[in-house]
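Continuing the series of single-chain predictions for the mutant panel. This is the parent chain; the variants come on the following pages.
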Amino acid sequence: LILYWTHLTLSQLLSNTDKMAKCRVCSDKLTLPYIQCAECAPFFNLCLCCFANGSKTGSHQPWHSYKLIHANIPVISAGWSAIEEIKMLSAIERYGLDW
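Parent structure:
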């Protein structure tokens, strides 16, 4: 079992495809952080609960290598996480710069 630590790019954070939106085991909507199997390609994503329970389905096994998908990285400013920056940019887009 190998655990990789992975940062999402801004485009990955903003994308919202069905394959990335749900856990492949329980079908719950994924929230950051979540787990992505490095051996079951492409986009075999697990919620933290299913990962912690050692869930398996189809060819996916609990001993596969994983990536931890999160967004706690600075993109524009070193003091803000990517999620905080996306929320700020969304607010600017919605309300303008004069708020």
